[in-house]
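Supplementary Note 2. Why include the ligand at all?

Several targets in our set were suspected to adopt different conformations when bound, so apo predictions alone were not considered sufficient. For every target with a known small-molecule partner we therefore ran a joint prediction. The input for NAP is given below.
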Amino acid sequence: MSDLLKYAIELAAVLLLALGIKGLSKVRSARGANQLAAVAMALAVAGLLLNYLSTSGLSLAAWTWIIAGTLVGGVLGAITAQRVPMTSMPETVALFNGCGGMSSLLVALAAALYPAALDATGPVALVSIVVSVFVGSITFTGSIVAMAKLQGWLSTPSWMQSKLRHVVNIALAVAALVGAVEMIRNADSGTGLWLLVVSSSLLGIGVTLPIGGADMPVVISLLNSYSGVAAAAAGFVVGSQLLIVAGAMVGAAGLILTQVMCNGMNRSLISVLFGGALGAGSAAGGGGGEYTNITSCSVEECALTLEAAERVVIVPGYGLAVAQAQHTLREVTRVLETAGIDVAYAIHPVAGRMPGHMNVLLAEADVPYEQLKEMDQINPEFPAADVVLVLGANDVVNPQAKSDPNSPLYGMPVLDVQEARTVFVVKRGMSAGYSGIKNDLFELVNTSMLFGDAKKVLGDLLVELKDLGLGKK
Amino acid sequence: MSDLLKYAIELAAVLLLALGIKGLSKVRSARGANQLAAVAMALAVAGLLLNYLSTSGLSLAAWTWIIAGTLVGGVLGAITAQRVPMTSMPETVALFNGCGGMSSLLVALAAALYPAALDATGPVALVSIVVSVFVGSITFTGSIVAMAKLQGWLSTPSWMQSKLRHVVNIALAVAALVGAVEMIRNADSGTGLWLLVVSSSLLGIGVTLPIGGADMPVVISLLNSYSGVAAAAAGFVVGSQLLIVAGAMVGAAGLILTQVMCNGMNRSLISVLFGGALGAGSAAGGGGGEYTNITSCSVEECALTLEAAERVVIVPGYGLAVAQAQHTLREVTRVLETAGIDVAYAIHPVAGRMPGHMNVLLAEADVPYEQLKEMDQINPEFPAADVVLVLGANDVVNPQAKSDPNSPLYGMPVLDVQEARTVFVVKRGMSAGYSGIKNDLFELVNTSMLFGDAKKVLGDLLVELKDLGLGKK
Amino acid sequence: MFVEFLWVLLLGSLLGFELIGKVPPTLHTPLMSGANAISGITVLAALTAIIKAGDNTALLLLGSVSLGFALFNVIGGFLVTDRMLAMFSRKPARKENR
Amino acid sequence: MFVEFLWVLLLGSLLGFELIGKVPPTLHTPLMSGANAISGITVLAALTAIIKAGDNTALLLLGSVSLGFALFNVIGGFLVTDRMLAMFSRKPARKENR
Ligand SMILES: NC(=O)c1ccc[n+]([C@@H]2O[C@H](COP(=O)([O-])OP(=O)(O)OC[C@H]3O[C@@H](n4cnc5c(N)ncnc54)[C@H](OP(=O)(O)O)[C@@H]3O)[C@@H](O)[C@H]2O)c1
Ligand SMILES: NC(=O)c1ccc[n+]([C@@H]2O[C@H](COP(=O)([O-])OP(=O)(O)OC[C@H]3O[C@@H](n4cnc5c(N)ncnc54)[C@H](OP(=O)(O)O)[C@@H]3O)[C@@H](O)[C@H]2O)c1
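The joint prediction is reproduced in token form.
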């Protein structure tokens, strides 16, 4: 293969990758853009293989190991992607991301151990290896911890919530730095390398573990940006501009996305990273006891009110997602629709624990697109609604965000559900939401609480509605 | 100077240039961004000089010629920039742009004539030289022709408006191609080079000359993009990434801007480039005779109506700009304001001959920013206006654009001046505007024509208003 | 060589910053997941390591494991993103059918 | 070398395309004029030609004239853009004073 062809393929791949990233940020083009990026990746791989085939050739051993790695990684990846439920998207992305980091780490280790074979000698290669090992390790362990926390496999040890963790993390960072310097000063000694690997792996854990589960999407996005940096560093190690550009693009785009996500939930990156679990204390203390004047009601009452309504707005929140109640919800709304009741869904941009998560979940349950209303669109419509059904949402319907300048939520745009005639709030108890603060909505006269797990309550509601004769034509 | 420092300076310069271009596209940051870009340029020049000073050193001859070139170019540039009136912005930009093209052309010529001295040998350098000569020549002659046409120094010869020009231009393009091939095949022979220079220079003239003066801003923007391409090609010749990146950025940004401008005036790039002077025929034939029911009035009548008004909207157009009447206009509006009359200016995005031109002109005449209303903002306010004063505007107030689907203007957003109680249209005669079509506004019952040069009419109006006792407190 | 690397690093980063402008919150998750798949471009590095390994088994093994991890990331990432986006894209189509 | 040049060319162009998003019509003229000044970056090429010319007078002359043209473009372009933008920037300040 001529050099020109090789370069042309590389340039084309970068062009397609750039178009892919750009397209992914618009609803219209997102799916095509993702496929385009996949094509670009395949093109880059094909180009690389063809280039080596036409020059030095590939040994049988190389083929064997390539096919082995491809089969294992590819098949596992494909299966995971198909099997994983939509509710576990954050965990899944974290897992994939961690593996990307691990891959960079392993390449850098290979280059550190066998520099001659990979032409990775000289100061530039050495520094790149150090960066790649450091960022790759953090990405790997950080992502895995994030995944485990989201899955509920891990909880934060109490000392991790004290200031002590900052001391530990600083010590780990210093150790990593020592390892890095040792590696650069004395490339042959293995001590520096292992010190770097171990301490940066621990650092990844130490930094991620204290972060509250709800802030995880931001952390994953940040780690995703890191894995781009790790790829760019690996590009310096093996001397590939394609890798550098693609890595740099992902790194920068990930940083922007992280910032956008923080803005959306009224939080700063610094407070996410160093603030620890938000409101861990206040949620327990302040959330429960302070409420007076709570009206609670039964599922029957709710069903009767729904039957009499003409216009119902559903407000799904985090609780709906964890309860995996989207399919039951869809059945309930189907029944309401066949009874001629007008149903709409109010989607707050940060409802749930991951941006856009609600849209994905409801789309999965086959809710028609036209019924999903964005916040700005639905807010003026609340006064015309007879019933609002708040399902496991809390902060996104807290009127304090507009009324109380001292509230931590102040300034965050919220859904004005209190404008509706009747509001039912489905949640398990009186505990607070993500922000850990009290919700004035629950005390309003037109609000009734319907306690219970969202899926269970919706199931009961379905039975009641059918008993009332709805849903049959 | 260490290599590292040199590269750091280059990278910093590109970073600043990119930020400059980005900032220039937002009103808030534009001025700072322009200064940032200037700093980046100075940084790049300083870096280059320091690098040579610290390595090979600069000879006395080099210094002399550098200082000579700097003084002449810099001083002339500074004087031109200070002296040129705001109304001549399009011409000025064209002139500057042409000089940029000439500079690339000269560097490429130098490299072609003395390849050894400039290390410009080998196929890559040769192809780059060819591109640089070709694009540089077109940019230079095209820009100069654009400038001359805008200044009114040149008019289009009649054969240039026939289809014949396409034949001539194709012949010139072929000749340029032959020259290019000859240059590459036989680098030492001068024939190819001169054929290329001459034929691409003529091509630049041949392509630009037939284009109507009003389309010129688009052409200038396109030529500006070309000068970026020429700079990038020069970067290949002398082997400078900085030049390549900066040139590529300007080239691409210029292309986007050209497209944006075309969209704004409801025109396609193809029709601008190959359509020739728009409506040249119809303007002469169709513009004049067709009007019936024209009401014309005197300056006195206009002054009396203005005196009785409470709310006056000024609609400035191309005619105001060519008449340079902005300062007189400002005096008139000052008089109206002191009489307690509410004055606003309706700025159509493509009023005039250059986008944003009206804003610059009125800002120059010290019109307060709050009085400049964009189209979307002012259109709902016309029904509440007592008097609308249309000054040398035509197409942008043509109601056909909304009412007649067969009109060439159909779809272009226009100012709804006909909604006002009384409309005065100041223009010299009944000739058509840029698009060459009839304006139904002139025949409406609430429209009165006030014939005369805009500056003269406004001057007379000022006298009349003062005679009526306005403007004195 | 190193300088050229720095150039592409700088330009790639700037490009990355510019490419993402206003992303609607709906797309944050798929964008994150798609970008994550792209970061699996380290497949190229893993492949290079295997190809250059010769008969160094340790290196072959390291490269192969690295390749596996990278491909897990790439294939899984693109597929899962597509799954998510397929759900979105069903909708505009429906809308047009109305 | 050539390949590295192509990389920066590609990335620079992509960056240029992305940098200009929605420009309000008010800014078309200054943006055009400012970008035009930047294209005068050919000063660098002209300087290189002069410095490398040695005692070749023809080359010195060509380089110097090229430098003059380029600087005319650069200095004139930046100054005239600044003049235009100064008129705009007076206004927001006033607006805030109200
Ligand atoms: N979307 C994002 O990207 C994102 C990312 C990170 C953080 N956040 C933040 O998360 C919050 C989202 O607001 P939100 O209103 O959706 O959620 P929320 O404020 O966290 O409230 C969720 C509520 O659901 C209830 N709940 C939990 N499990 C339930 C179950 N199985 N059945 C029924 N109810 C259940 C909880 O009360 P009980 O325990 O009493 O049932 C809780 O009050 C915002 O503050 C946002 O800033 C969003
Ligand atoms: N802004 C841009 O970027 C741009 C660029 C290219 C093209 N255009 C196009 O230009 C047009 C702009 O619309 P417009 O309404 O501003 O201008 P226009 O439609 O071209 O009309 C200008 C009118 O001014 C009159 N006029 C000329 N000189 C005058 C003088 N000294 N005193 C008084 N009146 C004078 C002319 O009529 P008389 O000869 O009868 O006096 C003419 O009808 C649009 O079609 C737009 O698409 C705009």
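Residues 57-97 of chain C form the longest helix (41 residues). The CA atoms of residues 20 and 31 of chain C lie 10 Å apart. Comparable summaries for the other entries are listed in the accompanying table.
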